[in-house]
Amino acid sequence: MKEDRPFAPTMARLREAGLRPTRQRLALGRLLFDGGDRHVTAEALHEEAQRAGVSVSLATVYNTLHQFTAASLLREVVVDSARTYFDTNVSDHHHFFVEKSGHLMDIDGEKIAITGLPEAPEGTSFARVDVIVRLQGEPRG
After folding, report:
1. pLDDT tens per residue, range 61-102
2. Model confidence over 28-53: pLDDT tens digits?
3. CA distance between the termini of the chain
4. HEC states along 118-135?
5. Rounded to an integer, what distance in angstroms lies between the CA atom of residue 3 and that of residue 113?
6. Cα 56 to Cα 80, 103, 116, distances in angstroms
């Protein structure tokens, strides 16, 4: 068995998105995409990479996350000016944000109805509407 086989799905995903599969992109992509949908901060991914033996700087993690977002592999969720998450679920959906713990959870896009939006200014159109429902306390279960 070839050593690079575990990276094959990530390599294919990067190539389909038009990104060159560099060592760092492959390693970070595998951490991001091999475990199902998740929300991650750059700092948390950097720590995870270090624990996995991936030698990569925090700046490279940030750059890679932004490249993945620009290629539509991730969705950036800005909770506030100090907290940005990157979401591997790029489908139409919204989020619960638990203020105390910083935990972010998906809300099915069909569970929230957006009505009464103003007309977009001339020459523009809506890209998407993000709803973040902020929660107090901690969810049970």
Report:
1. 999 999 999 999 999 999 998 899 999 999 999 999 999 999
2. 999 999 888 999 999 999 999 999 99
3. 41
4. CCCCCCCCCCCCCCEEEE
5. 47
6. 26, 25, 45
Say how far apart CA 137 and CA 135 lie, in whole Å: 7
Q: What is the pTM (predicted TM-score) of this model?
A: 0.87
User: Rounded to whole angstroms, how far apart are CA atoms 122 and 14?
Assistant: 35
Angle between helices 58-70 and 42-51 (to 10 degrees): 120
Q: What letter represents residue 97's amino acid? A: F
What domains are there in the chain, each with its CATH number? 5-80 (1.10.10.10), 91-135 (no CATH)
